[in-house]
Design brief:
The chain is α+β, with helices and mostly antiparallel strands. It has a single domain, classed as Clam (outer membrane lipoprotein receptor (LolB), chain A). The protein contains 4 helices and 15 strands. Strands 1, 2, 3, 4, 6, 7, 10, 11, 12, 13, 14 and 15 form a 12-stranded antiparallel β-sheet that branches. A 3-stranded antiparallel β-sheet has the order 5-8-9, with no helix packed on it. The protein is globular and about 50 Å long.
Length: about 300
Amino acid sequence: MIVVGHREKIRVMGILWLLSTALLAQETGLDRARLASQAQSFAEQLPNLIGTEVLKQKSIQYSTRMRIRVGEAALRPIAPKIAEREIRSEIGYSLRGKESPVWSELRKVIDVDGRVVTAPKKARERLAFGLKSDDDRTRLKLMEEFTRYGLQGLATDYGLSLLLFRFGDIDKMRFQALATEFIGADQVAVFAFKRADTDVAVTVFDGKQASRQPLNGRIWLRQSDMQPIRIQLVALTIQDKTQVMDEGIIEYGPSKFGCVVPASVRYTRLINGVLTLETQYLYKDFQKFGADAELKFTP
């Protein structure tokens, strides 16, 4: 029998802890080249990609009016006013701008709160025409049309977040390994990242005013092949001593085109720590359309 003293036990435990820490660091090592390759593959499929998006928005307005109340009613907080919208659209992706082109989401609305605006087949054809057009005015018209349906704090371009990690762009990122965990059956590595410039940013519409916000956040990568599974983006701004936090969580899934595509986006806005807006985007039925005049789609 081998007897190990107390000090020796501590020394052995220390060695085991160091080994486990080293293995964890190795497991969560970021392979930038493989991640950039995944992002590049996504970018290469964007030009002819069209899918269906269902947007569900819940905006919460808290009363600021002074009201005189008596009795039991005075003890109960004033319930906030909640407005809900649901918009189904065809969605595609287009490069906008000639000098410094950036990818943007374009939509053609099918129905609003169950009321048909455009037949699905016609919506897809019109969107494909807009995506093919070299005229930025056609694309701008599609973007403006989408903002007319009374949506509050509309955030777009979250589904394009994977483009942050393309070759060339990924070198502008600073990463920090955070943890390993499981999402379903997949073991994933979680990294914090930060990019200080505004070359790639989310666009938030407040009424008719649009702002592009610098981003930082976290990314979840499947350890076996560096496939991105989830991206979280956070933008924090101060407006007239009011703290506004916009957060987007993007889930990605595999596609038949050899790259991941957006599966869902959850966008929230907190003002001074209070939730005022929640928007859910769900995506399905991505197809590719041909470059010919008949706009044939690949199912």
